[in-house]
Design goal:
Length: 135
């Protein structure tokens, strides 16, 4: 997966919402949104896979801690389309991340590291991010 945009030292705190708008490339295999305390630790890896890692039209969420991937969480929804705009609104609570997707579906993913603030956000893969807003 190609490395994309990295945002450092931007606080995403409990009680805030992050809105991400982007466009999946017409030939995308997958893309990812990563939130964590550093580049080495990811508390929430959100990975829509069009056709990657043996998955088709599957959303996989996970965490990366201590040099290892944790247990994957696979979702039953896939509202993403090649070459089309998407919108993801991530609500950050003390216990979990609540991801509201373009089609109205919702994904709940636990805040496995338990922090109340994360300062490292990155985007990988084949999508062009057009806006990010934290409120």
């Amino acid at each position: 997966m190609m490395k994309g945009m990295i945002i450092k030292n931007m606080s995403f705190k409990v009680g805030q919402h992050m809105t991400i708008v982007g466009v999946a490339k017409p030939d995308a295999t997958n893309f990812a949104v990563n939130i964590g305390p550093s580049e080495e630790e990811i508390t929430m890896h959100f990975n829509p896979r069009f056709n990657a890692h043996g998955d088709e039209n599957t959303v996989v969420c996970n965490s990366y801690q201590g040099g290892n991937w944790c247990e994957e969480q696979r979702e039953g929804v896939f509202p993403f389309h090649l070459g089309e705009e998407f919108k993801i609104v991530i609500e950050f609570t003390p216990a979990e991340f609540i991801l509201n997707l373009s089609d109205g579906s919702t994904i709940h993913f636990p805040n496995r590291m338990g922090a109340e603030k994360y300062s490292h956000i990155s985007f990988d893969g084949e999508a062009r991010i057009t806006s990010i807003e934290i409120k």
